[in-house]
Amino acid sequence: MTILRDKHTSTAQFRQVLREVAFVLGCEATKDLALGNIEIETPLEKLRAPYLEGKKLCFVSILRAGNGLLDGLLDLIPSARVGHVGMYRDHETLEAHRYYFKTPDKLGERLVIMVDPMLATGNTAISAADELKEAGARALKFLCLVAAPEGVEKFSKAHPDIPIITAALDRELNDVGYILPGLGDAGDRIYGTKG
């Protein structure tokens, strides 16, 4: 997290470290997945071995910054399905607006893990969760890199059934809705853009 927070970290290094942190967060988010047992044969003997049961889980990236977490998560579970929810935040009102929505079918039969590097005001995550529930998702988790207490409180009130997995709970939001101390705009740092 120190490398990600450092304003001198290059775009390439930011992406690489973000991928590594996403992998670790993915381990935490998936540690309780349902397992079944099947019989397999090793080169030496037969064995009853665990495997993931049920429909393949679904990672849903909240665009655009959520895509920065996907590679690390797919390194962990390459067979996962991927959906996208395009949301942008109005910088005046801090409200979220949807511009894109595409997910795999049968969301109600899958664990859906929403991914976005930041949980700041909570507005974007709440809107994305609303959209996913409307599309049929019943089992959801929210995975983020950094969260503000204000966003955690607001999101948890709106969706008390959705656990939040985060690498850091920071101090507060500033007057324009950025997390302090934070790490800046994650999307801009991932893609090397400004504003």
**What is the CATH T-level topology?**
Rossmann fold
Helix content: 25-40%
| Beta-strand percentage range | 25-35%
Largest sheet: 7 strands, mixed
CA(first)-CA(last) distance: 22 Å
Structural class: alpha/beta
Low-confidence stretches: none
CATH architecture: 3-Layer(aba) Sandwich
Would you report the number of β strands? Answer: 11
Rounded to an integer, what's the Rg over CA atoms? 18 Å
Report the mean per-residue pLDDT as an integer: 92
CATH class term: Alpha Beta
Shape: globular
Order of helices and strands: HHEEEHEEEEHEHEEEH
Describe this protein with a few key phrases.
195 residues; alpha/beta; Rossmann fold; 6 helices; 11 strands; globular
Task: Give a nutshell description of this structure.
With 195 residues, this protein is α/β, with parallel strands linked by helices.
Description of the molecule:
By secondary structure, this protein is of the alpha/beta class. The strands form three sheets. Strands 3, 4, 5, 6, 7, 8 and 9 form a seven-stranded mixed sheet that branches. A two-stranded antiparallel ribbon has the order 1-2. It has a two-stranded antiparallel ribbon with strand order 10-11. Helix 2 packs across helix 3. The model has no long low-confidence stretch (mean pLDDT 92).
